[in-house]
Amino acid sequence: MNSSTPLAERMRPTTLDDLVGQEHLTGKGSILRTAIENKRIPSMLLWGPPGVGKTTIANIIAHSLQAPYFQLSAISSGVKDVREVIEEANHKPGAVLFIDEIHRFNKGQQDALLGAVEKGIITLIGATTENPSFEVNSALLSRCQVYVLKSLQDNDLIRLLQHTLQKDELLHDLSVDIKETTALINISGGDARKLLNLFELVISTEASRVPQKKIVITDALVMQVAQKKIALYDKQGEQHYDIISAFIKSMRGSDPNGAVYWLARMIEGGEDVKFIARRMVIFASEDIGNANPNALLLANTTFDAVNKIGYPESRIILSQCATYLASSAKSNAAYVAINEALAAVSKHGDLPVPMHIRNAPTQLMKNMDYGKGYQYSHMGEGNFIPQEYLPEKIAGTKFYEPGNNARELELRKFLKDRWKDKYNY
């Protein structure tokens, strides 16, 4: 490589042993490493923040398999490009197709991949910074393994800097001493590419200022070159996760001022309105739930509205919803209930459905006592007849505990009136 090739590209690993971080996927005995070593690679989606090795892993896989390798970017490619690659791959068995930012493909573009993936014409490797459950259609998602990549830790980034100084040929002619790493690490936000780009910028800036002299990397020097620690909001870096966390926790803590501030940070940074609205829909159910059922209605309406409106007007709708959610009564009772029910399912397995509440659409089922003894609730006083709805092994288990708020106290009274002491409401 020549001097015009960015340092991050010059240092791109070519083997799993050179890869920094992601030991849970690529370390000795890990699931992905084993698949690569056995040369049995499934189609996959690599999900994680920028600069953590998604493209690098795809390149390593293709190199390890010695397979024909195609690469597309969802930003600049369309259905026509996908079909051309698939047509070429038809004549190249074992071809690997890497699609960067696959979440940017619309449904039609994703559907164009289905047949080739299903028939094994291509092994698809998609890279995404967004949750595949939301951004990749279910048909394609079901045909791919999803591997989650993590932000690089401080020790990973320090190791990468040291490795770079030892291995990069173009840095051999310079005398570089890394005295401090805090600023480099903080600004990079777990992104190896951002770290090396900044490192290269600092070195080149200082080398042009004091040629033939030793370059000492300090936090002050890094900050001077970088001008400021980090932009207001980096929707592809660590702050993406930190700020949405602050936003959610402000609403959970019933602070509309904190909520609207962190919302403004996301808006100023150009965050996807769907991402913000989607998180508020989840929040309305997870953190408010039956304490105020209108919260979910408003959040869902907000999601629909901002998709139609877009920036800048959608900021008003987002603000209305965020301040309402923050100012609402809170309850995580529904969230706790489903988690405890799932734990019971995991613990007890597939318990049989009680005979009296089984469906009996055929005479044979009726003869086998399906539905026998079921009492139609609307025939009872207050549209209620006490009977057991849980499997015998966990009969009487209470999963839902209404919260201590006006709405759920009403629910508690309703349940206590009907179930008396059975569930101890």
Give the structural class: alpha/beta
CATH topology of the largest domain: Rossmann fold
Widest sheet: strand order?
2-3-4-1-5
The CATH class designation of the largest domain is Alpha Beta
Radius of gyration over all CA atoms, rounded: 28 Å
Q: Roughly how many Å apart are the termini?
A: 71 Å
Named at the architecture level, the CATH assignment of the largest domain is: 3-Layer(aba) Sandwich
Quick one: overall form?
A: globular
Strand content: 5-15%
What is the CATH superfamily classification of the largest domain? Answer: P-loop containing nucleotide triphosphate hydrolases
Overall mean pLDDT: 85
Low-confidence stretches: 228-233
Q: Report the count of strand segments.
A: 7
Percent range for helical residues? 40-55%
One letter per element, helices H and strands E, the order comes to: HHHEHEHEHEHHEHEHHEHHHHHHHHH
Helix tally?
20
Largest sheet: 5 strands, parallel
Keywords: ATP-binding, DNA replication, Nucleotide-binding
GO molecular function: ATP binding; ATP hydrolysis activity; DNA binding; enzyme activator activity; single-stranded DNA helicase activity
Family: Belongs to the AAA ATPase family. RarA/MGS1/WRNIP1 subfamily.
Domain AAA+ ATPase: 40-152
Detailed description of the structure:
This is Replication-associated recombination protein A. The protein has 425 residues and is α/β, with parallel strands linked by helices. It folds into four domains: 22-148, P-loop containing nucleotide triphosphate hydrolases (Rossmann fold, 3-Layer(aba) Sandwich), CATH 3.40.50.300; 154-226, Helicase, Ruva Protein, domain 3; 238-327, Zinc Finger, Delta Prime, domain 3 (Up-down Bundle); 345-419, no CATH class. Helix content is 51%, strand content 8%. The chain is built from 20 helices and seven strands. The protein has helices spanning 7-10, 23-26, 31-37, 54-65, 79-89, 107-119, 132-135, 138-141, 154-167, 182-188, 192-209, 219-226, 238-252, 256-268, 273-288, 294-309, 314-327, 333-348, 363-367, 406-419, and strands at 44-47, 69-73, 95-100, 122-128, 145-148, 176-178, 215-217. The strands form two sheets. It has a five-stranded parallel beta sheet, with helices on both faces. α15 packs antiparallel against α16 (294-309) and α16 (294-309) runs antiparallel to α17 (314-327). The protein is globular, with a radius of gyration of 28 Å.
